[in-house]
């Protein structure tokens, strides 16, 4: 079948949205399907076009066989609600025009959100081509950003929610990443029987291949970034935005540095709106046991995790309890113990997997105790790492998840699997 994916984010950008359909696209292609991704020019997470990239009215390229059509956006940088709204709205508009004018003729159209504006574009393109529409929801906007205090409720939010309901009700299928989100989407208007949970995961074959090939380069990258060798390095790799609550890590580091002779070093690797803030705190507080560095080439991330003593997955307190950070799966794939600081559904996953110490969001003493527990029992730490790897092999290998997604697509198109 001919599959059209509309996504605000795609390779070479970092983060869950780019990775999810970057991996799925390759598996769809390997299964004999034709895959086109309609996206924009790389700008995540800073919201400005990445160095060396020049926007054009339209650009087509092939990435590992996947046809990628890029369309321009107004990317002014910064993270104010207005600038983000302009970024999202201009992609929705330019992608709609670009997609409608091209002779794509897809058999199915997938819109992967957030932002919800992508879903509006993909829904209209599905109507344009008389194809079934599949809405992929990783996080439920606008209610998630309103709950986080990043946007105020008002007429604009009400308008978005009304449009979301139209898309939910009109989609042939809705896919999402956790059971809690499935329940909420049904409450918001998705039709019973159309919502399928296909969690995030990790491409284990690629992860192992890149970890083996790039471990030495990743180790040298850490050394050049200032991460000392022969320390117990706790690695966080991801975006530096408010929902992650990374200030807590610096609070922990300050406390541990005050103990003296502590073997733990925190490596925060990535980029985002809080990068400058984190660097300022490290310098102002004289934190010698923290390195803030990056961004890093995505192909080095598996090797980076392999170099870690433990990995860190963290969220600040939030109202919804159904958010599952996608980075937990790559963390578990590394075979290293996972330190989780979060609330809700993700804690159940971590406890079932027995992948490492679990503490609540914002629970500084609990996270400290988890680090100390790993230091005190190397045998238990190694067991957590083995259990973590076993869990993702059984439940979150992207190859199996792609097969499940194809089952959804073949069902809505009425084609034989």
Provide a descriptive summary of the structure in words.
This protein has 417 residues and is of the alpha/beta class. It has 15 helices and 14 strands. The strands form two sheets. Strands 3-4-2-1-5-6-7-8 form an eight-stranded mixed β-sheet, sandwiched between helices. Strands 11-10-9-12-13-14 form a six-stranded parallel β-sheet, sandwiched between helices. Helix 1 crosses helix 15. The longest helix has 22 residues, at 204-225. The chain is globular, with a radius of gyration of 21 Å. The termini are close together. The mean pLDDT is 93.
Structure at a glance:
The protein is of the alpha/beta class. It contains 15 helices and 14 strands. Helix 2 runs parallel beside helix 3, helix 3 crosses helix 5 and helix 11 packs across helix 14.
Low-pLDDT regions: none
The tally of structural domains comes to 2
> What's the gyration radius in Å?
21 Å
What is the level-2 CATH architecture name of the largest domain?
A: 3-Layer(aba) Sandwich
Q: Structural class of the secondary elements?
A: alpha/beta
Mean pLDDT: 93
What proportion strand?
A: 15-25%
Helix content: 40-55%
Largest sheet: 8 strands, mixed
């Amino acid at each position: 079948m001919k599959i059209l994916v509309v996504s605000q984010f795609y390779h070479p950008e970092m983060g869950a949205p780019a990775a999810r359909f970057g991996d799925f696209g390759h598996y769809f292609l390997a299964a004999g399907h034709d895959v086109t991704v309609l996206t924009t020019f790389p700008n995540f997470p800073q919201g400005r076009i990445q160095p060396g990239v020049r926007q054009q009215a339209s650009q087509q390229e092939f990435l590992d066989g996947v046809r990628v059509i890029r369309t321009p956006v107004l990317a002014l940088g910064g993270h104010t609600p207005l600038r983000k709204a302009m970024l999202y709205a201009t992609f929705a508009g330019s992608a709609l025009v670009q997609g409608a004018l091209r002779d794509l003729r897809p058999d199915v159209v997938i819109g992967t959100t957030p932002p919800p504006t992508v879903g509006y574009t993909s829904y209209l393109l599905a109507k344009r081509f008389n194809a079934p529409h599949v809405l992929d929801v990783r996080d439920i906007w606008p209610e998630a950003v309103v709950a986080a205090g990043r946007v105020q409720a008002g007429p604009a939010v009400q308008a978005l929610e009304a449009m979301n309901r139209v898309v939910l009700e009109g989609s042939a299928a809705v896919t999402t990443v956790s059971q809690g989100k499935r329940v909420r989407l049904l409450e918001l208007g998705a039709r019973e029987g159309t919502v399928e949970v296909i969690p995030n995961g990790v491409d284990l074959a690629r992860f192992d291949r890149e970890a083996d090939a790039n471990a030495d380069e990743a180790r040298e990258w850490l050394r050049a970034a200032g991460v000392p060798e022969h320390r117990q390095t706790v690695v966080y790799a991801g975006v530096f935005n408010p929902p992650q609550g990374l200030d807590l890590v610096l609070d922990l580091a300050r406390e541990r540095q005050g103990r003296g002779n502590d073997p733990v070093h925190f490596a925060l690797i990535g980029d985002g709106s809080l990068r400058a803030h984190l660097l300022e705190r490290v310098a102002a507080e004289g934190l010698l046991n923290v390195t803030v560095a990056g961004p890093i080439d995505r192909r080095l991330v598996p090797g980076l995790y392999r170099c870690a003593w433990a990995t860190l997955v963290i969220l600040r307190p939030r109202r919804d309890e159904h958010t599952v950070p996608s980075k937990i799966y790559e963390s578990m794939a590394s075979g290293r113990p996972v330190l989780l600081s979060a609330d809700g559904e993700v804690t159940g996953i971590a406890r079932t997997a027995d992948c490492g110490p679990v503490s609540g969001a914002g629970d500084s003493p609990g996270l400290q105790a988890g680090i100390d527990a790993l230091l005190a029992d190397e045998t238990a730490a190694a067991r957590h790492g083995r259990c973590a790897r076993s869990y993702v092999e059984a439940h979150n290998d992207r190859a199996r998840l792609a097969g499940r997604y194809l089952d959804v697509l073949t069902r809505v198109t009425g084609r034989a699997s």
